């Protein structure tokens, strides 16, 4: 798996920011960075009357961008205010490709030009201040790769994902966590829970969808300026094309889902999958805290299938052999598991991938039949059993960088993890299992969960403890026990 102000120095940039702030009547929010921390003193905002979203101590990014679609450059500025963590430096992560690096042009700290270092991975800003709050402004330029990558342009589709500097995370000892390095598999990214106001200027011929809700759309000369807002997401992404045909569906009174395809022939197919997946996950997990979602189609030989906040992305290759009926529900499931409820993708990616794969079984069962779901579940069990021979000494908690190849990663984090959750369902029954899923989700919206969170949700929801997690997560695969104990 990844926003921006015009680069206008001085008073003009502050005027632009004030216009956005005034327009949405936004109150500035401060933030103290941490990793996978559960705050017990959080203020909450209720979405409709269903889900509570944490609002205290998370950053609000005010970002404006200009996309030059001729030079394939994004010029921009990001502004945010955070609680001073008391560290000697403030760290931002960037995730550019090595052959298409981001350029950090200027940095301001508390309205003064700041000293910084940038190694194309991390932006490190010296922090000489003792003030409670820090106001940070970063001017940068990001080239858009002309390839069918996670972030790039191909076949007249712009997929704009990891394109701006993102505040880093601190460990429990108040040390900045080193930015993970991509390795060609998995999702080696660390994202903070944040609010966003994004002003995006581009050619009016490009139709855009994003992680946020559209607030305004105006023409500025020969270009179109669009402003989006969203609270409580992991990062902010966009997708656009001059070829997109966009239709909206409303699966419930709180949610609008936009479907962006380059031709209309597959609309019914995608709409039916989307409606079925959304209704299944809402029933099993709970209401999302977001009102606008989008389904995004990209070209052939691009990105397979990806999740970004409020976006489920798939390439046209997924239509072949009906792979779309597996991977689109999988990516929709990530809006619950990864975005609304966060996971450390480097250390605990088995949680959201396993829950997303488990969700595909639920989707097949609810849309078609129990036997359809069982076929996929049996496939997970076969892949899981195969690990005993192919990777006997491997463990599910190994972390992303200790898997040898994509097949081992898939069989572990996707198949074995999904098999683990479904084995729990077999043992405790569907009613108790569904109560567990709702508890895990609804008590952790806005949080980052780990194995302990799963055990706590199981005990809280149905007063059950099991040795399943210890054995299937921590023990070598060759020691897997198929008969589990339930207390």
Task: Give a verbal description of the structure.
The protein is an alpha+beta fold and 487 residues long. It folds into three domains: 11-241, Immunoglobulin-like (Sandwich), CATH 2.60.40; 245-340, Zincin-like; 349-479, Neutral Protease Domain 2 (Neutral Protease, domain 2, Orthogonal Bundle). Helices cover 28% and strands 29% of the residues. It has helices at residues 11-24, 267-284, 324-333, 349-367, 370-390, 406-428, 430-442, 451-462, 468-474, and strands at 44-47, 51-54, 60-68, 73-83, 89-93, 103-109, 112-113, 116-118, 122-126, 133-143, 152-154, 157-160, 166-167, 194-202, 207-210, 213-220, 223-233, 238-241, 245-252, 255-261, 292-298, 305-308, 311-315, 342-343, 448-449. The protein is globular.
**Mean of pLDDT:** 89
CATH A-level architecture of the largest domain: Sandwich
How many discrete structural domains?
A: 3
Number of strands: 25
Kindly report the CATH topology of the largest domain.
Answer: Immunoglobulin-like
The CATH first-level class of the largest domain comes to Mainly Beta
Q: Could you tell me the radius of gyration in angstroms? A: 22 Å
State the helicity in percent bands. Answer: 25-40%
CA-CA gap between termini:
38 Å
| Discrete helix count | 9
- What would CATH call the homologous superfamily of the largest domain? tricorn interacting facor f3 domain
């Amino acid at each position: 798996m990844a926003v921006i102000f015009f680069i206008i120095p001085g008073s003009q940039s502050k005027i632009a920011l004030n216009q956005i702030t005034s327009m949405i009547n936004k109150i500035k929010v401060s933030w103290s960075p941490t990793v996978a921390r559960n705050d017990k003193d959080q203020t909450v905002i209720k979405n409709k009357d269903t889900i509570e979203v944490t609002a205290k101590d998370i950053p609000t990014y005010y970002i404006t961008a200009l996309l030059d679609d001729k030079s394939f450059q994004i010029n921009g500025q990001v502004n945010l205010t955070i609680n001073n963590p008391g560290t000697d430096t403030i760290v931002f992560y960037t995730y550019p490709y090595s052959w298409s690096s981001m350029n950090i042009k200027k940095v301001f700290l508390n309205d003064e030009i700041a000293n910084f270092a940038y190694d194309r991975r991390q932006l490190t800003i010296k922090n000489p201040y003792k003030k409670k709050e820090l106001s940070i402004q970063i001017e940068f330029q990001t080239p858009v790769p002309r390839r069918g990558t996670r972030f790039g342009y191909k076949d007249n589709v712009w997929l704009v994902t990891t394109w701006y500097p993102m505040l880093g995370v601190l460990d429990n000892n108040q040390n900045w966590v080193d930015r993970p390095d991509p390795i060609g598999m998995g999702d080696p990214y660390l994202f903070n829970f944040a609010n966003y106001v994004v002003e995006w200027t581009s050619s009016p011929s490009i139709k855009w969808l994003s992680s946020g809700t559209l607030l305004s759309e105006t023409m500025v000369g020969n270009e179109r300026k669009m402003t989006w807002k969203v609270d409580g997401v992991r990062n902010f992404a966009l997708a656009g094309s001059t070829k997109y045909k966009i239709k909206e569906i409303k699966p419930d009174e709180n949610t609008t889902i936009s479907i962006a395809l380059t031709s209309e022939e597959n609309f019914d197919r995608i709409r039916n999958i989307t409606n079925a997946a959304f209704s299944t996950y809402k029933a099993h997990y709970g209401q999302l805290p977001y009102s606008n979602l989008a389904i995004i189609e990209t070209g052939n030989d691009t990105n397979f299938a990806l999740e970004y906040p409020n976006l489920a992305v798939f390439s046209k290759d997924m239509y072949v052999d009906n792979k779309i009926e597996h991977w689109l529900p999988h990516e929709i499931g990530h809006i619950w598991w990864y975005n609304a409820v966060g996971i450390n993708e480097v250390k605990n990616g088995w949680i959201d991938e396993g829950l997303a794969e488990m969700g595909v079984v639920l989707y097949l069962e609810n849309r078609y039949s129990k036997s359809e779901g069982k076929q996929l579940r049996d496939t997970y069990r076969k892949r899981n059993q195969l690990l005993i021979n192919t990777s006997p000494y491997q463990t599910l908690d190994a972390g992303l960088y200790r898997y040898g190849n994509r097949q081992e990663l898939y069989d572990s984090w996707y198949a074995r993890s999904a098999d683990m959750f479904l084995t729990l369902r077999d043992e405790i029954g569907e009613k108790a299992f569904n109560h567990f899923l709702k508890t895990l989700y609804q008590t952790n919206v806005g949080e980052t969960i780990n194995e302990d969170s799963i055990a706590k949700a199981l005990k809280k929801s149905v007063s059950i403890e099991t040795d399943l997690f210890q054995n299937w997560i921590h023990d070598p695969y060759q020691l897997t026990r198929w008969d589990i104990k339930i207390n």
